[in-house]
């Protein structure tokens, strides 16, 4: 199929883009990378009156360290994130996670902000940014506001952003970046959407006891799941098989993945427990190794 007829706009500034969003409301849709939205248009699952192309807004294309945050402009390409020496130095889990996104052609077009706003529950960037306790900057003609990602995702493919708003920046706090990190996912074929994905951050003390940790899981619910209660079970302890099993069980106990043609609910939950164990073990190993090198 081909998309329904629409008016096409290519604003030269964020202000102009916001003016168009204000004018068209629900009938105006933003186009960034288009990796998800173009198929939706072609299948006529969305028939907007106007398409507002923000691909060329250079003011939203940047990666920089500022005021204790790694700041990423919303139209920054995923491949730029993956190849950035600054990101690799400051937030290596983000490089590791980005490498799992589709293929290089996908990452060359896909944008960081587009992935966050699309909010696929198994997508690599929303999941990892949630683990990193990131926040986003959102603008409209009337105001600029910030939202924590833990509050940003509402349900499947739905966020709290309003039709007249534009996500402009992602901010990752750097003050307490963990030494240990890991990203794990499983898909049926390389480049496919993940059935389940896991991101983990971990710190240990000089004797290998876990002192802090964050973990999020994608693909087991309508939004990425931040497993705070489960990770609390690790604090003050060294890893063991029984502890890892308990953590995995705790993470999935309230999860409700859908059965679909790719995997059953039971398969996804079991897979999640396997990947949670792998991610925690890998993050733990890296944390111990980096602690020894300090």
UniProtKB/TrEMBL annotation:
Identify the PANTHER family for this entry. XANTHINE DEHYDROGENASE SUBUNIT C-RELATED
Question: What high-level taxonomic lineage is stated for the organism?
Answer: Bacteria, Bacillati, Bacillota, Bacilli, Bacillales
Domain of life of the native organism: Bacteria
Enzyme Commission no:
1.2.7.4, 1.3.99.8
InterPro entries noted in UniProt:
CO_DH_flav_C (IPR005107), CO_DH_flav_C_dom_sf (IPR036683), Diverse_Substr_Oxidored (IPR051312), FAD-bd_PCMH (IPR016166), FAD-bd_PCMH-like_sf (IPR036318), FAD-bd_PCMH_sub1 (IPR016167), FAD-bd_PCMH_sub2 (IPR016169), Mopterin_DH_FAD-bd (IPR002346)
> Keywords, A to Z?
FAD, Flavoprotein, Oxidoreductase
The keyword Lyase appears for this protein: no
Using the record for this protein, list the coiled-coil segments as residue ranges, or answer none.
none
Top EC group: oxidoreductase
Organism expressing this protein natively: Evansella vedderi
Tell me which residues make up the FAD-binding PCMH-type domain.
1-177
Cite a single GO MF annotation.
Answer: 2-furoyl-CoA dehydrogenase activity
Q: What is this protein called?
A: Carbon-monoxide dehydrogenase medium subunit/2-furoyl-CoA dehydrogenase FAD binding subunit
Keyword Oxidoreductase listed? The answer is: yes
Write one Pfam family the protein is assigned to. FAD_binding_5
